[in-house]
Amino acid sequence: MDLSSFITSLTTSFIIFVILMVLFAWLSTKPGNAVVYYPNRILKGLDPWEGSGSKTRNPFAWIREAFSSSEEDVIRMSGVDSAVYFVFLSTVFGILLISGIFLVPILVPVSITEQNSFLMDSTGNTSAFEVLDKLSMAHLKEKSSRLWASVIACYWVSIVSYILLWKAYKHVSDLRAAALKSTEVKPEQFAVLVRDIPPSSKDCSRKEQVDEYFKTIYPETFYKSLVVTENKEVNKIYEELEDCKKKLKRAQTIYADSKKVNPEGVVQTHKTGFLGLTGKKVDSIKYYTEKIEELTPKLEAAQKSTVAEKQQGSAVVFFTSRVTAAAAGQSAHARMIDTWTVTDAPEPRQLLWSNLPKTYYEREIRQYVVYYIVFLTICFYMIPIALISSFTTLPNLRKLLTFLKPLLDQVTVRTVLGAYLPQLALIVFLALLPKFLLFLSKAEGITSESHAERAASGKYFYFSVFNVFIGVTIGGTLFDSFKEIQKKPNSIVDKLATSLPGNASFFITFVALKFFVGYGLELSRIVPLIIFHLKRKYLCKTKEDLEEAWLPGDLGYPTKIPNDMLILTITLCYSVIAPLILPFGAIYFGLGWLVFRNQVLKVVVPKYESYGKMWPHIHVRILASLLLFQVTMLGYFGIKKFIYTPVLIPLPIITFIFAFVCSKKFYRFFKSTALEVVAPRELKESVNMETVYRSFIPPCLNAEKGPGEQFDESV
Amino acid sequence: MDLSSFITSLTTSFIIFVILMVLFAWLSTKPGNAVVYYPNRILKGLDPWEGSGSKTRNPFAWIREAFSSSEEDVIRMSGVDSAVYFVFLSTVFGILLISGIFLVPILVPVSITEQNSFLMDSTGNTSAFEVLDKLSMAHLKEKSSRLWASVIACYWVSIVSYILLWKAYKHVSDLRAAALKSTEVKPEQFAVLVRDIPPSSKDCSRKEQVDEYFKTIYPETFYKSLVVTENKEVNKIYEELEDCKKKLKRAQTIYADSKKVNPEGVVQTHKTGFLGLTGKKVDSIKYYTEKIEELTPKLEAAQKSTVAEKQQGSAVVFFTSRVTAAAAGQSAHARMIDTWTVTDAPEPRQLLWSNLPKTYYEREIRQYVVYYIVFLTICFYMIPIALISSFTTLPNLRKLLTFLKPLLDQVTVRTVLGAYLPQLALIVFLALLPKFLLFLSKAEGITSESHAERAASGKYFYFSVFNVFIGVTIGGTLFDSFKEIQKKPNSIVDKLATSLPGNASFFITFVALKFFVGYGLELSRIVPLIIFHLKRKYLCKTKEDLEEAWLPGDLGYPTKIPNDMLILTITLCYSVIAPLILPFGAIYFGLGWLVFRNQVLKVVVPKYESYGKMWPHIHVRILASLLLFQVTMLGYFGIKKFIYTPVLIPLPIITFIFAFVCSKKFYRFFKSTALEVVAPRELKESVNMETVYRSFIPPCLNAEKGPGEQFDESV
């Protein structure tokens, strides 16, 4: 990449960023958009515009607000998981900043003053260096003693990383402890999940069996058990009923609105067939009222039969003491691992009920199968995509989808399709990949949404590092010069030596694009804004509809963290080779901190709270990036024929030891709850065990009239 | 080894065995020897000669008694650990017997009928086969289709092993559960060990700190804590005092005895200097009485100051509930792994007090250092021994130890020393090795005797397999034909092919020697008998002295199990190559079962009870032997140029999977106690927590007059 295209790319990204920021400043002050730009505050019952309340507020106030917000604010507004994400951003920002402060002013002059106008000396191709390459290690001669500066830089980057990561792990551990220590009553702290309940030999129900088992072991602290049931059928009825209720309300609202215009009102009708397009025309209000009357007793009957007859081999067990629950989650209850598996309970809202009854062996086998599928996906995903691409050509489309023929014959459509069709499969694949990985992670038999998202995030990390980073760097190089290498296999090393720094400028523009355009879109929320306004205009009838239309999502860890990790991996790996990438990486994480501070405080609403369990996962992957950097540098120094290359060998070893020590020291507390943290302390409110118990009853079983009681009696 | 020397060796061993058995049959019926042959029964307060009581009992009655004894008898007389040892013996016996039933009648005829009078065909050396080798796989031609029989045999041995091992693991797990479930009060089930207690920030004693910490977490079930103290000083005084008491008693007894002869009595005197040889002559009774009077208050003062001032960073904590103690041992109490480490308590008698205060990091570092030392010892122990041997030659001895000159100049002494001196260092080393390994294991920071013995046993296993088996088989071969291999490096494979079966007959005699002579000595107890009678005659004065003289040891797991394992490894590895070894191996374990049944019921007294924690250790090592067998066979089939060799590749893989599944399924219950096992049940006696607590106070702190109280108050 030459200098002009490099600058063009940066400028374009920056202009898009400025436009989006102006849009944000303008749009976010409009009161009608408050639900798009401040949904989290509104949901928490706070005034969207903090304090001031004036409509003509400073459009850059959000920056001040983000900086002045404390970690406690983040935890209060969005939970520990969000605070951990900021620890991640600030730690990585710190690593890149401190590395940059040392590396840029030292390595750049060292490179630029080297007398070396030949690069491809081995191939005899004396090309003058690009300006950008002059700033990088590529400009250093082979065996040059100036490489010592790069060696020191490698150690500097590594040591900075170790220190900051250690501090961060400690800090996150404190955050987690503070949250778990909290005197608020959290239902999940009083419960454990019990899986693999063996078939009872005696003639008793599952519930009796579970109750007896735990009452024997914990005669004093056992409270109640909630046996997991097969809810498919009852859930279907429940959802149908809820849907009818919603539709009835909507029909009533429309009818009431129509009365305002016409005193008689327009009777709402709809067709009962497919998508409301076919079938008999009926009076909506009457139809839905009848349907609700019909479904309500059906639901009650289904609830009763489910609770009585469809009990599965797993349960949620409640204790009256947090310590007992925490200790139970860590203790072997049965002699064999495949019976009475007891684990900590996640929050009720993120419990994956359908995974609970999966047996131990099923889970183990599923896990290995999923790992295998992920391995295949990461390594060979190009094969099916290439196959599909070869079929989705214009001629094929015309042949197969004959009804599209008139459309496909238009010139503009053909041009656009001709350009995008070949990549269509890849684009669809990449868009669906996070969902696919999340689906796979859930298929492993994981019990909580947060755990499944962590697992999916890990898989995505491997995919992106393997395919984007390694793919672009090495694959690109090899592919470009495939023929040359065929002739002279030894030239592969020289090729890599020249192309590695060359790729740096590509990655710098990649990082810049990511933060300028990515954060611009994130902050300005253009897409959700448009969708919200469209929905409000054409679809929303009732207040609930409207609320649903602006309801914000969560941060989306399964894709966000692997993406950040990819940027970190790229930045770290090029940090010594092309130190200019460091400021860009630092801006990515610094700006990210600022933008997401705003998002977390005002926009996104977390789906769950895992009390920072994400951190060990992030920590290990940062270390993996660091390791990749160190190994890359080892290789690159080798290519530079630097005879002191072995002085770098301790670095990967230190990284392994550091990872081992950290996992030994900190990890256990993230895996399970330390008892000292939940030791008896005056709780804010006295624990109402019935409320704790009820919070775990799935909504489809939780009918309005005394559901819990019914739930108990019918057993 | 040719046939005649093979038969000679077997016959010699057998004759020694017969002589020892006759000796045993004769000596064991003598009432004076009852304390040597029935100490366990005597200590348990039982009649040495079960039931009959007549002195002219059948000398072979022990065989009938051993066979008729049940597993419950073993557990009652010697604990679960001994029962587990019999499970090991019977399982291995079963594996070898069932393998032998199939392998001997099939593989031997297959080998013997092969038309192959040439072995060293590749070297052109047409030696006629020895009779023994004709029975082995060596007699099969290369690429012979008869090798299929051997392939099937490999599978047969492996599958039999898997099935029997699985059953055994299940059975041992049941034994352990039954023992832990027992309604007898066992102090260790109410206690946990606490290590790595962090320095207290507040101004309070360790004990207050521990009490507060555990009272907060377990407000209802916490009973008391016992802080570990630095007992070196108080222990020294205590031992001195105990020694004085013993000596006083002895002097009094001798004086009383002398009165019977001479009414005045002979006043006991001794010298106070080195070894009683130098110094002032004093009246023993007076001297010791004074000394005791002097030491008793000193001990009390030392006890007080120790308890008050020498508290260490670890403690034993007692709970009033078995479930709490079991759960506490499995739970993380603190957030960091290096503080408040809580583990299950072992029995008080096997607690290694001095290891308790070692900190987490010290333990980790010690562990790695010990592993490293063991690795060096296993691989390079010959080097220092060779060095020492080169110094301990006769001329050197004469030069260095001039006072031995006249002795060394005698011809007979010189002949004997000349024969044994070169191996002296090796003999001393091998004799001290188990003790050295036990010392190393304790240096790791392990908290219980049983765990340390397991660790030592594991180390000894690697030593013996590596040095004896691999050393003899491969090393011997290579060394013998070193020059030939130098000339023709390819001949190494042929050498191995011929020498492997050749070694078989050596190992058969080795196994036979082990069981004929080893078990003969074990059963007849000639050495302890002689020592006892010598002691009784010359040293024992008081009743206590006499009791000490016949007090039997325990089974000695750290050397016994690795030795058995070595035999098993050898037998398994040769089972298919030379199936004749199988009956010998089976006899080793079958006869071992019989002999040790007698020993366990009547002689040995176990030092500790670990409730079968030895089993996972044994299980893994049996599988390691099986793996070695499978890998050896893979190699040997390769040497035989059998093109279907890869059909054996699944075997090692299955072994790994089997080991993994077993460890997953069973191991957790051996690592820690399953809660369902210790769930509240009516205990035989109501738990006297004070007794439980006191049983853990080390004897040197447990003075006679109200020691526990003093212990508590002074804190």
Overview in brief:
The structure is a homodimer of 715-residue chains. Chain A has 715 residues and is mostly helical. Chain A has 4 domains: 3-184 and 490-678, no CATH class; 187-231 and 310-346 and 685-713, Alpha-Beta Plaits (2-Layer Sandwich), CATH 3.30.70; 234-304, no CATH class; 362-443, no CATH class.
Helix content of chain A: 55-70%
| Major beta sheet, strand line-up of chain A | 2-5-1-6
Structural class of chain A: mainly alpha
Shape of chain A: globular
Distance between the termini of chain A: 72 Å
Describe this structure in words.
Chain A is about 65% helix and about 5% strand. By secondary structure, chain A is mainly alpha-helical. Chain A has 4 domains: about 5-185 and about 490-680, no CATH class; about 185-230 and about 310-345 and about 685-715, 2-Layer Sandwich (Alpha-Beta Plaits), CATH 3.30.70.330; about 235-305, no CATH class; about 360-445, no CATH class. Chain A has a 4-stranded antiparallel β-sheet with strand order 2-5-1-6. The termini of chain A are far apart. Residues about 120-130 and about 705-710 of chain A have low confidence and may be disordered. The interface of A and B includes residues 330, 338, 668 and 680 of A.
